[in-house]
Amino acid sequence: MASVRDRMRSHLLQTLSGTDDGSPQWVLDLERGDDAGYFGPGSASWAVHGGMATMVAGIRALLVQALHPGAMAGVHDWSRYREDPPGRLTGTIRWLITVTFGDRATAERSSAMVRGLHRRVQGEYVDARGESRSYKASDPDLIEWVHLAFTDSFLACHELWEAPIPGGVDADVGEWAVAGRLIGMEHPPETAAELRARLDAFARDGVLKSDDRVREIVRFIRNPPLARGMLPAYRIMFAGAVASLEPQHRRMLGLGKPPLLVVPATSAVLRSARGLLGERSTSEEAARSRIARLQREGWSPDAGERPAA
């Protein structure tokens, strides 16, 4: 039984981090740095992005992001998700984890790399009104949509499957506004109510669209090329992600409402994942090691690393 458990843990860590032990060099590098980062222990961001529900939230975010035809065009035209889905996933996770748990300089370098990639991603797409439009991934509306979908997905899944957020939902949205600014968003939402209103505005203004590209990526996300032993748990998490969607988004994605038992079933999968991986990720442990070192060196949190959102 121990060998089966070890294989499952290895498969899971390989999928999430790109290494069997969950400690690629970029995670180990989180021990370096001269400050506690933008957030720190006890923050809403550490709680939300350090929980097991992130695995479901990542699925949900990809589904929601696909509904903007400009964002979908960027994925369709430029992403290597079909040829290298683990690499695509690991790249996204790396940015999330680095901004959440890294020191400020590392978070800023990682975000600068993302902005650089965005400047190269450009092309044309047909919008929801049938008109051809040019796009760049750095366009304000695309950055906004991706940030909103990401923030909303991680918040919604944490509320469904994790403990209450320190400071509440507004603390999470307000803190993660920092990440929005780091990737070039001028006015990210500061509260959960503002987040919801801005998401609703995209639907109300007729921006979102469902087409063959959306259906293609939904099929891929539903059945990704994972190790066979991981597929049963993944299918439950996919169903959990679908259950957490707003009804209008679920309809546009062509997905039916899963049975009520999906939510507790997803909770059971996440408990099992926590049993395999432990209460704290290797990334959080590395960040705590950095902060402990700084404290030994005389650093004080009273200096105030957390910027005004």
Structure commentary:
This protein is mainly α and 309 residues long. It has helices at residues 2-17, 25-28, 44-49, 54-65, 69-78, 85-101, 104-120, 140-161, 169-182, 192-204, 212-222, 231-244, 247-252, 262-277, 282-296; strands at residues 122-126, 132-136. It has a two-stranded antiparallel ribbon. A hairpin with a 5-residue loop joins strand 1 (122-126) and strand 2 (132-136).
Q: What is the oligomer described by this structure?
A: single chain
Poorly predicted regions: 304-309
Specify the helix fraction band.
Answer: 55-70%
| Strand segment tally | 2
Please, how many helices? 15
Shape: globular
Largest sheet: 2 strands, antiparallel
Instruction: Report the span from N to C terminus.
Output: 48 Å
Cross-sheet strand order for the largest sheet: 1-2
Q: How much of the residues is beta strand, in percent?
A: under 5%
Radius of gyration: 19 Å
Structural class: mainly alpha
Order of helices and strands: HHHHHHHEEHHHHHHHH
Q: How much is the average pLDDT?
A: 90
Keywords:
single chain; 309 residues; mainly alpha; 15 helices; 2 strands; 62% helix; globular
Write the layout of secondary structure elements.
Layout: H1 2-17, H2 25-28, H3 44-49, H4 54-65, H5 69-78, H6 85-101, H7 104-120, E1 122-126, E2 132-136, H8 140-161, H9 169-182, H10 192-204, H11 212-222, H12 231-244, H13 247-252, H14 262-277, H15 282-296
Antiparallel strand pairs: 1-2
